[in-house]
């Protein structure tokens, strides 16, 4: 298994480009099967999760072509298999995103039920109940969700809890359904807006994305078109956290600062000096870190996908803080590894009580999920000596060329072969 070796202590300086967003690209790729025309994608991030989504679409009969300008085209006119196999779903839970589109366009889907994962049990009951309200018949059989519908009908749906992929699945199910669908208590994440914008650009009628009430009027068919994947706010936030921790001075280009407001405001409270333009964020950190309390919440609250990174920031701050994880029930797996590096953190229920320390030391640590991996890399960047992060296949699911980007900014980080 590949590992990352980091020698801590380098100040990050310089500028990098933000990649396309994983969590925007995955639902948009799934949504492309709602049209039988060609859809061309620009700015897709080069990530394992994107490869897995292509593998899934390919296994369903979708033609995928990479042209000379590195743009991918997806053509689902030959789609003839309506199944997402367990082998794929177990490596990427977001495979569930093809459920709404398959049911909406083909009236059938067989998707392996995603199990729990390192950050929680993560059921999909809100997706299934809402699809049933639209007329789908759903059974669980042999570890698979087996769903059928002659034609989905618009419905007035109130989600039992805020769910990002659930909202995305229901948007996709409703786009070609008979009549109007209203989604209440919908997720407001920017990636939901990206999906709605893409679908509207190829002929869908979706209003209200970005609010908690989304209204969709079914249309007969969708056109082909082009899609530029917007920047990844969590990737950008992770590099800004790295600069804060290393007392660095960096600029991230090709990023929309408006999407990062909840992260930038916390970094400012930490003491960072932040400047933005329409498409860049610059950060400079010259002082000791002020601790900041964090409560993760669905958007526009503080993102759970930045919680692990802020755990390290607080662990190296000059005081005490509390981080409360409200979205997932088990997203503190990184803490035990941070404690091994010298951090002073205790977990009680959904709270992490953190007492900042002046310095931490490098160690061999194990990544348990995507954002936990990012957090351990950040810890390695500011630790004394050498840190080896094991199981980095997690990081390759969601961060494009992370060691290259960090090296470019001056970090001492290399990938060790298997
Ligand atoms: N939930 C239910 N029932 C459901 C759906 C969700 O109880 O039917 C619960 C979950 O267990 C969780 C909470 O609701 O406690 C929120 O889960 P949500 O459905 O919003 O999460 P998700 O859609 O599975 C997406 C992102 C995650 C991100 C969360 C929260 C994608 C592909 N994944 O997951 O991204 O953490 O929203 O913002 O968009 C990551 O990128 O590292 C990542 C985990």
Characteristic key phrases:
418 residues, alpha/beta, UDP-n-acetylglucosamine1-carboxyvinyl-transferase, Chain, 2 domains, 4-stranded mixed sheet, 14 helices, binds uridine-diphosphate-2(N-acetylglucosaminyl) butyric acid
Look at the helices and sheets and give the structural class.
Answer: alpha/beta
Strand order of the largest sheet: 22-23-1-24
Q: State the end-to-end distance.
A: 5 Å
CATH topology of the largest domain: UDP-n-acetylglucosamine1-carboxyvinyl-transferase, Chain
Which architecture of the largest domain would the CATH scheme give at its second level? Alpha-beta prism
Q: Can you tell me the residue ranges where pLDDT is under 50 for at least 5 consecutive residues?
A: none
Which shape, going by the Cα principal axes?
globular
Give the CATH superfamily of the largest domain.
Enolpyruvate transferase domain
Instruction: Tell me about the largest β-sheet.
Output: 4 strands, mixed
Please tell me the total number of domains: 2
How much is the radius of gyration in Å? Answer: 21 Å
Helix content: 25-40%
Task: Give the class-level CATH name of the largest domain.
Answer: Alpha Beta
Quote the beta fraction.
15-25%
The total of helices stands at: 14
Mean pLDDT: 96
The number of E-state strands comes to 24
Bound molecules: uridine-diphosphate-2(N-acetylglucosaminyl) butyric acid
């Amino acid at each position: 298994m590949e590992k990352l070796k980091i020698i801590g202590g380098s100040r990050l300086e310089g500028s990098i480009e933000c990649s396309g967003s994983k969590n925007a690209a995955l639902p948009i790729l799934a949504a492309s099967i709602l049209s039988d025309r060609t859809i061309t994608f620009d700015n897709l991030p080069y990530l394992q999760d994107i490869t897995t989504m292509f593998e899934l679409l390919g296994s369903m009969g979708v033609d995928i072509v990479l042209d000379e300008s590195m743009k991918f085209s997806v053509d689902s006119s030959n789609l003839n298999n309506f199944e997402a196999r367990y082998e794929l779903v177990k490596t990427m839970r977001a495979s569930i995103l093809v459920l709404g589109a398959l049911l909406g366009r083909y009236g059938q889907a067989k998707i392996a039920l995603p199990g729990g994962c390192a950050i929680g049990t993560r059921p999909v009951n809100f997706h299934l109940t809402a699809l049933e309200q639209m007329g789908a018949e759903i059974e669980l059989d042999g570890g698979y969700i087996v769903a059928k519908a002659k034609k989905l009908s618009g419905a007035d749906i109130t989600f039992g809890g805020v769910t990002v992929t659930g909202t995305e699945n229901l948007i996709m199910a409703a786009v070609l359904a008979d009549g109007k669908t209203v989604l209440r208590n919908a997720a407001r994440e920017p990636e939901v807006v990206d999906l709605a914008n893409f679908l509207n650009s190829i002929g869908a009628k979706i209003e209200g994305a970005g609010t908690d009430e989304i209204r969709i009027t079914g249309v007969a068919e969708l056109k082909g078109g082009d899609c530029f994947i917007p920047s990844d706010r969590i990737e950008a936030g992770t590099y800004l956290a790295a600069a804060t921790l290393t007392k660095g001075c960096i600029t991230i280009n090709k990023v929309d600062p408006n999407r990062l407001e909840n992260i930038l405001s916390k970094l400012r409270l930490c003491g960072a000096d932040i400047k933005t333009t329409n498409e860049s964020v610059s950060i400079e950190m010259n002082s000791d870190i002020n601790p900041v309390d964090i409560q993760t919440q669905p958007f526009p609250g503080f993102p759970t996908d930045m919680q692990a990174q802020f755990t390290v920031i607080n662990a190296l701050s000059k005081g005490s803080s509390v981080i409360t994880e409200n979205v997932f029930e088990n997203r503190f797996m990184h803490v035990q590894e941070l404690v091994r590096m010298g951090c002073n953190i205790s977990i009680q229920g959904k709270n992490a009580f953190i007492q900042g320390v002046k310095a931490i030391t490098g160690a061999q640590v194990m990544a348990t999920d995507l954002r936990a991996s990012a957090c351990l890399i950040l810890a390695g960047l500011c630790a004394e000596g050498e840190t080896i992060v094991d199981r980095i296949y997690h990081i390759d699911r969601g961060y494009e060329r992370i060691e290259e980007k960090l090296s470019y900014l001056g970090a001492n980080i290399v990938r060790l072969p298997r």
